[in-house]
Amino acid sequence: MSRTDSDHTAVGAPLLTVTGLRKAFGDHEVLRSIDLTVRRGQVVALVGPSGSGKTTVLRSLNVLEVPDAGVIQVGSDLTVDFSRPVPKRLLASLRDRSAMVFQHYNLFPHMTVLENVVEGPVQVRRRPRDEALEEAERLLARVGLSDKRDSYPFQLSGGQQQRVGIVRALAMRPQVLLFDEPTSALDPELVGEVLGVIRELSDEGWTMVLVTHELGFAREVADEVVFMDGGVVVEHGPAAKVLGEPQHDRTRLFVRRLQQRF
User: Fold this and answer.
1) Do residues 47 and 228 lie in contact, with contact meaning Cβ atoms separated by under 8 Å?
2) In this structure, is the dihedral angle defined by the CA atoms of residues 111, 116, 122 and 123, taken in order, positive or negative?
3) Distance, CA of 53 to CA of 66 (rounded, Å)
4) Nearest 10 degrees: CA dihedral of 42, 43, 47, 50?
5) What b-and-e string marks burial along 104-143, b requiring 16 or more CB atoms within 10 Å of the CB?
6) pTM score, whole prediction
7) Diameter of the chain measured on Cα atoms
8) Residue range 135-161, pLDDT digits in tens
9) Does residue 155 contact residue 207 with C-beta atoms inside 8 Å?
């Protein structure tokens, strides 16, 4: 069942606002003046063909890639303008507002599951280790991985590794969760267990920006879908509208091709 209009009334004020975001790698302009607004408690899905700039948007929000221009505002107290040099403290503040779940898990191979989860809260957030361990245990239990706390990543399935990745992000207590194709590296039979966790987070009201090719899932959980192509936003709006009745020719072609693939 998709999110209904009544679900949208519960979405709050803008939490994340992006204006005029630009990023180039050499002569290749990957993002060409991207505007994006994500409200508190909203789930926004970024969809589009490979190379359209979706992942670069996520990496810019988390400052894994520093934009060349544009403004990112999170909440009412943090605005970062990339048209001028940005102090490191502001970059750190922006990075602290979000947490990324990566396509290929990015777990530390030499650390156990529990150590992977507590590393960020202890080393980055400077939380007491006992407090971080207690929260890590609780989060692992909620995704059914308590029995894997002392395992290493190589001992886990892909689905289990991705659930650990989600727990690691949650342990940072971010304002915004960022998901970069969280199921694309998984075997088909493992996709459901990861999508189930994301669906629960959506139901709990987490603010999320999700890059995905799972159009059925995007339609189910997302409040809004943003279709990107060639580094620009081609179309955006309610998920059912963009994916069910796309207005732009490029969107219609993309949706039709992906539906044929899956």
Assistant:
1) yes
2) positive
3) 14
4) 110
5) ebebeeeebbbbbbbbbbbeeeebeeeebbebbeebbeeb
6) 0.91
7) 55
8) 999 999 999 999 999 999 999 999 999
9) no
